[in-house]
Amino acid sequence: MRGWATVECYIGRSPMANPKYAASDTPAPVAELVDTLSDGTKVKIRLPRMRACGEKDEKGKLCAGHLKRWFFFGSEVKQKFGADAEVYRCEHCKTLYLPNPDEQPRTGTLSY
Ligand SMILES: [Zn+2]
C-alpha cells in the first residue's frame, strides 16, 4: 500500500490540474501573424497600443524595434490589404504590422 500513499501525496502537493501551464511567467500577448509576403516579410496585426515590435529572433531575443507608419509598400501589399492600407513597419526587422481592429478611433468618422 506504500505506493498508493506516495501517489496520493504527490497529487495533493500539486495545486494545478495541469502542471504544463503552471509556469510562473504568464505568456505575453503575441501579435497575430496574418500573412507572409513572397519575400518572407511577415505581416502581423498589432496589439492594441502596441508601439514596439514583438518579434523574436532565433535566440528568443525580443526585437523591440519601433513601429512606424509605412507608405512605401509594393504591389503585393496593395493587392492584399488595399492601396491605402494603414501599414506599420518595424524599423529593425522590417516586419509589417496592420492596425488592430479593436483600436479604431471612436470618433465615428469611418463610414462604410
Ligand atoms: Zn522588429
Can you walk me through this structure?
With 112 residues, this protein is of the alpha+beta class. Helices cover 17% and strands 16% of the residues. The protein contains 2 helices and 5 strands. The chain has a 5-stranded mixed sheet, with no helix packed on it. The site of zinc ion has 8 residues, from loops.
Shape: globular
Q: Report, as a whole number of angstroms, the end-to-end distance.
A: 72 Å
Q: How much of the residues is beta strand, in percent?
A: 15-25%
Number of domains: 1
Radius of gyration: 22 Å
The helix/strand order is HEEEHEE
Strand order of the largest sheet: 1-2-5-4-3
Q: Unreliable segments (pLDDT under 50, ≥5 consecutive)? A: none
Helical proportion, percent range: 10-25%
Which sheet architecture does the biggest sheet show? 5 strands, mixed
Count of distinct strands:
5
Ligand set? zinc ion
Q: Quickly give the structural class.
A: alpha+beta
Number of contiguous helices: 2
Let me know the average pLDDT.
Answer: 81
